[in-house]
C-alpha cells in the first residue's frame, strides 16, 4: 500500500486551495469526503468518522482500515469533547500497525473563536487564555497531548467566500453596526501554504497550537464604509452598477451616522477602540513566510 505525504480527512472548502498546491509541489496526497465526490478535480475516498465507535482497541476491522497510509493526517472537521481525538489518533495507528514509515503526524484545523473570552491584554496570541470549556478546544487539547498540532484559523475567505456578501447577515440594523468592532481573516490559499509549511517543520508543530491570521486587524466600520457601493458591484442594484444617482449600502450610511454620534473623526478606529486584536505575525515569522493574500 502506497504511503502518501498527507491524508486529508474531510476535503471541503480548504481543500479547493490545498489540493492544487499539493499537486503543484508534487506532494503525494489522498482525501476523503462523505460521498466520494471530486474536489478540485480529484476523486476522493468515501469515508465518514464515527465518533461513537471505539477504535482504540485492536480489532480485525475498524473504521480506519479503508484509509490509506500517510505521514501526515489533516483533520478538517471539528472534533468535540473528550475522547474523539484519542479515538481518531489511536484508531488510525492501530488499524495500520507498523505499516507506516514512522509515527503519524496529526494536524487539526480549529477556530480562533476559542479566544473570544475576556482578556487582560489588548493583544491576543496563541499563548493567551482561551475557553477551555469549549467542546472544540477540549478535543484540540487532547490532540496536543497526543503530540498532534492545532492550527486555529481566523475568518476564512477566498473563492466563493466573499466577505462583502456577509454584511447583510452580520449587520441587519444600525444597532448591529454599532456593536461591530475588530475582524480577523485568512485567505484559503494562505491556509494551504501554512499546512504545507507545517509538514516541513514538524519540530515547530509537535504538541503546539498556532493561530493563523493574515496579520491585519480589520475595523468592521472601515470595511462597511469601503463597501458602500458593493450592492451595485455584486449585481444587487443597477445592472451596470454605474448610475450616477445610486445610493450606498444602509450599513455604510449607519457607520457615518454612528461616527458623528460618537465623535469618531476618521476610520479605521484605534486598536484600543476595536478591542480584541490577534497577534497575527507569529506564525509567519516562525515559519519564514509572509501571506500572499493579506488585506481583504
TrEMBL record:
<dbReference type="InterPro" id="IPR036291">
    <property type="entry name" value="NAD(P)-bd_dom_sf"/>
</dbReference>
<protein>
    <submittedName>
        <fullName>Uncharacterized protein</fullName>
    </submittedName>
</protein>
Amino acid at each position: 500500500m502506497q504511503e502518501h505525504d498527507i491524508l486529508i480527512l474531510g476535503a471541503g472548502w480548504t481543500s479547493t486551495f490545498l489540493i492544487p498546491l499539493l499537486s503543484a509541489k508534487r506532494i503525494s496526497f489522498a482525501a476523503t469526503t462523505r460521498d466520494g465526490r471530486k474536489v478540485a478535480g480529484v476523486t476522493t475516498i468515501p469515508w465518514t468518522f464515527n465518533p461513537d465507535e471505539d477504535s482504540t482497541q485492536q480489532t480485525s476491522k475498524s473504521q480506519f482500515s479503508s484509509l490509506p497510509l500517510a505521514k501526515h493526517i489533516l483533520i478538517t472537521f471539528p472534533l468535540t469533547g473528550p475522547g474523539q481525538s484519542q479515538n481518531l489518533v489511536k484508531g488510525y495507528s492501530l488499524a495500520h500497525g507498523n505499516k507506516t514509515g514512522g509515527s503519524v503526524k496529526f494536524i487539526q484545523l480549529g477556530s480562533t473563536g476559542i479566544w473570544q473570552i475576556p482578556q487582560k491584554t489588548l493583544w491576543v496570541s496563541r499563548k493567551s487564555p482561551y475557553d477551555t470549556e469549549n467542546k472544540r478546544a477540549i478535543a484540540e487539547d487532547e490532540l496536543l497531548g497526543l503530540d498532534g498540532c492545532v492550527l486555529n484559523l481566523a475568518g476564512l475567505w477566498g473563492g466563493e467566500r466573499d466577505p462583502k456578501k456577509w454584511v447583510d447577515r452580520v449587520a441587519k440594523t444600525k444597532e448591529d453596526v454599532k456593536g461591530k468592532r475588530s475582524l480577523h481573516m485568512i485567505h484559503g490559499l494562505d491556509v494551504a501554504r501554512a499546512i504545507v509549511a507545517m509538514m516541513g517543520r514538524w519540530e515547530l508543530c509537535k504538541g503546539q497550537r498556532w493561530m493563523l491570521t493574515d496579520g491585519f486587524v480589520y475595523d468592521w466600520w472601515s470595511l462597511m464604509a469601503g463597501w458602500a457601493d458593493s450592492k451595485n458591484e455584486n449585481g444587487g442594484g443597477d445592472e451596470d452598477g454605474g448610475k450616477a444617482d445610486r445610493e450606498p449600502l444602509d450599513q455604510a450610511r449607519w457607520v457615518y451616522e454612528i461616527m458623528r454620534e460618537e465623535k469618531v473623526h476618521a476610520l479605521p478606529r484605534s486598536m484600543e477602540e476595536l478591542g480584541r486584536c490577534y497577534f497575527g505575525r507569529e506564525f509567519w515569522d516562525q515559519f519564514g513566510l509572509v501571506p500572499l493574500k493579506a488585506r481583504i
